[in-house]
């Protein structure tokens, strides 16, 4: 298990390899479908200090607001990442984001982006919402809650020992690509004999 | 005349929602446990199942959602003659909104035109409620939560499919299902459970597929041909090697449940409703004395 502290440098991220298990601590931000669309249309400067050297978590949490107005995460597993494929490489490069955390992996465009700007794709376990919410120790802030709604807002969170696996690295390796290539072969045999 | 106390029933429905979101049914948990035992010692797949099982326990113990995507809430409600549907719908809505306040459900209803989240998980078509009248003297509410990730990999084919060499028979049905599960990879939170609808029209074919997911993991299809096809598909699909969460492994699919409808001579649809491993469904029976039992 490799411990990662955020913010993290490009050099440290480039050391990671497909298959590495990591535990992340520090500040990161959630962003999913509506957030990526918003970024792509506006490229806002206010996200720069939040994202620089940090990670984007593809997550739409179940949250609880306390009487003093503060928030906590109740359930917070990853959502499917491939929907952000059109945007992610450009977002990572623009804001110097060092990793995205999600599930299901991403495609060629993102894989090329990881190599170019220095990043990794981290896979969390889908449906592990109750457990992963425990790794979110504090909700630092929330942005655009009214505009985007609870699942799609930018939640700036502090995590501690958040577990994930590197499934796409900055050296061009993708676990998703290799699993798919093998299963394509089997499917071909099953379908065409 | 069937009577019930509205306030009490609203609370009983809230409990049904809590169970559905936080307590994975026994038959599903047992199926995941068996799958874990079948994976190699020290494999990624076995370790993923370990984490999944731990999360299931934690969610149940702390009454927090197993998955943050509490999904489309799908209700099948069976009512005796004379029970009003509009009142029950209003009570389901009330319980839904309260479940959001209690963090059992995520506000999951987004206006498709404006992009605005309704904030209480209620909107046009959400939750989805289907009523049927029956001869029994009690009401049954069946509830399933189906997340967006697995809904997005669900799909529909029409036979013949030239590219796959799939004709208008069970062999053709088999081929398109293999194709769909291979395309889904780990995206729908594998290992999945497949509800298959054969025939019908575009709509009823999907409805048949989804309805299969209300069956228990261990039940037996009443149609002998489909019994055979379900077990063949289960064995063959697990050869794909996609594994839990797409990390590779022997378990790509936990179960296959098939159903059929009559079709038009011109149409032959096959619908595949992919359910994630967080296969959340519970039911509640309400008798005439106001007593409920949950399953």
Describe the structure.
The complex is a heterodimer of chains A (193) and B (295). By secondary structure, chain A is α/β, with parallel strands linked by helices. Chain A has a single domain (2-192), classed as Alpha-Beta Barrel (fumarase). Chain A is 34% helix and 30% strand. Chain A contains eight helices and nine strands. Chain A has helices spanning 10-14, 33-42, 48-51, 88-95, 108-117, 129-135, 145-148, 175-192, and strands spanning 2-5, 21-30, 55-57, 62-65, 71-75, 99-102, 120-123, 136-143, 154-168. In chain A, the strands form two sheets. In chain A, strands 2-3-6-7-9 form a five-stranded mixed β-barrel. The model of chain A has no long low-confidence stretch (mean pLDDT 96). Chain B has 295 residues and is α+β, with helices and mostly antiparallel strands. Chain B folds into two domains: 6-22 and 66-147 and 280-294, Dihydrodipicolinate Reductase, domain 2, CATH 3.30.360; 149-275. In chain B, the strands form two sheets. Chain B has a five-stranded mixed sheet with strand order 2-1-3-8-9. In chain B, strands 4-7-5-6 form a four-stranded mixed sheet. In chain B, helix 1 packs across helix 4, helix 2 packs antiparallel against helix 3 and helix 6 (170-184) runs parallel beside helix 8 (224-237). The two termini of chain B are 25 Å apart.
In brief:
Chain A is α/β, with parallel strands linked by helices. Chain A has helices spanning 10-14, 33-42, 48-51, 88-95, 108-117, 129-135, 145-148, 175-192, and strands at residues 2-5, 21-30, 55-57, 62-65, 71-75, 99-102, 120-123, 136-143, 154-168. A 5-stranded mixed β-barrel of chain A has the order 2-3-6-7-9. In chain A, strands 4-5 form a two-stranded antiparallel ribbon.
* Helix/strand order of chain B, N-terminal first: HHHEHEEHEHEHHEEEE
Query: Which structural category fits the helices and strands of chain B?
Result: alpha+beta
CATH domain class name of chain A: Alpha Beta
Our estimate of the beta-strand percent of chain B is 15-25%
> How many strands, which pairing sense, and closed or not: the largest β-sheet of chain A?
5 strands, mixed, barrel
Oligomer: heterodimer
| Overall morphology of chain B | globular
CATH topology of chain A: fumarase
């Amino acid at each position: 298990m490799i411990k990662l502290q955020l913010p993290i440098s490009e050099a440290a991220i480039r050391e990671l390899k497909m298959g590495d298990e990591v535990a992340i601590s520090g500040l990161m931000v959630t962003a999913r479908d509506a957030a990526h669309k918003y970024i792509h249309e506006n490229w806002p400067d206010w996200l720069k200090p939040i994202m620089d050297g940090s990670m984007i978590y593809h997550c739409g949490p179940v949250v609880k607001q306390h009487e003093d107005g503060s928030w906590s995460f109740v359930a917070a597993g990853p959502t499917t990442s491939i929907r952000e494929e059109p945007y992610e490489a450009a977002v990572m490069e623009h804001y110097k984001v060092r990793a995205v955390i999600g599930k299901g992996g991403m495609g060629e465009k993102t894989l090329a982006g990881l190599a170019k700007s220095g990043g990794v794709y981290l896979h969390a376990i889908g449906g592990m919402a109750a457990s992963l919410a425990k790794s979110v120790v504090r909700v630092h802030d929330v942005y655009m809650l009214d505009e985007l709604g609870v699942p799609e807002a930018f939640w700036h969170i502090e995590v501690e020992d958040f577990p994930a696996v590197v499934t796409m690295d900055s050296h061009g390796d993708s676990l998703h690509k290799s699993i798919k290539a093998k299963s394509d072969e089997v499917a071909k045999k099953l379908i065409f004999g | 005349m069937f009577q019930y106390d509205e306030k009490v029933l609203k609370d009983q429905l809230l409990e049904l929602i809590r169970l559905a979101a936080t307590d994975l049914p026994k038959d599903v948990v047992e199926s995941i446990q068996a799958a874990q035992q079948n994976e190699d010692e020290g494999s990624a797949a076995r370790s993923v199942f370990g984490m999944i099982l731990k999360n299931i326990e934690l969610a149940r113990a702390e009454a927090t959602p197993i998955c943050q995507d509490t999904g489309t809430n799908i209700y099948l409600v069976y009512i005796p003659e004379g029970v009003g549907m509009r009142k029950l719908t209003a009570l389901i809505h009330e319980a839904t909104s309260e479940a959001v306040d209690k963090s059992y459900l995520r506000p999951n209803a987004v206006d498709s035109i404006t992009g605005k989240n309704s904030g209480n998980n209620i909107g046009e078509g959400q939750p989805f409620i289907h009523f049927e009248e029956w001869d029994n003297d009690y009401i049954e509410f069946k509830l399933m939560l189906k997340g967006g990730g697995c809904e997005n990999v669900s799909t529909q084919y029409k036979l013949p499919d030239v590219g796959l060499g799939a004709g208008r028979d069970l062999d053709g049905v088999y081929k398109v299902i293999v194709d769909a599960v291979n395309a889904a990879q780990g995206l729908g939170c594998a290992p999945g459970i497949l509800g298959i609808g054969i025939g019908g029209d575009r709509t009823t074919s999907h409805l048949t597929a989804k309805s299969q997911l209300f069956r228990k993991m261990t039940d037996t299809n009443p149609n002998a041909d489909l019994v055979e096809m379900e077990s063949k598909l289960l064995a063959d699909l697990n050869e794909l090697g996609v594994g839990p969460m797409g990390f590779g492994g022997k378990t790509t699919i936990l179960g296959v449940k098939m159903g059929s409808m009559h079709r038009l001579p011109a149409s032959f649809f096959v619908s595949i409703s992919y359910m994630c491993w967080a296969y959340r469904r519970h039911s509640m029976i309400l008798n005439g004395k106001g007593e409920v039992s949950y399953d």
